Amino acid sequence: CVQSHPACDSQPTSGYSTPRKRGSISGQDRQAFFRVLTAIYKNQRKQEKETARLELAETYERQQSKEDTMWQNELKEVIWLELQAWFAGKDVNVQDQWILNQRKLVDQVAEMVTT
Length: 115
What we know:
Number of strands: 0
């Protein structure tokens, strides 16, 4: 190397001027991340509570009216009567009359038992 040449005057810079790696996240960055994460979490919880509230409200909205309940009860009675008639081998009207007559006899039977 010739002393007058600028490249020969320089000393090796390896390790002296290498930029140092900063920490991956600074304090302000951590705080900003924490604020964003907290906001996302709170929003998620708020949405879950709102969804639960709406589901509960929907449950109450689906309650049957008195008319629906009465109709279903009457339908169940008709189906039960038809089933009893089928097992007895009778017509539905005949089975219904037989049941009404038997209900009238309940008071007489109860009186006989208690006396």
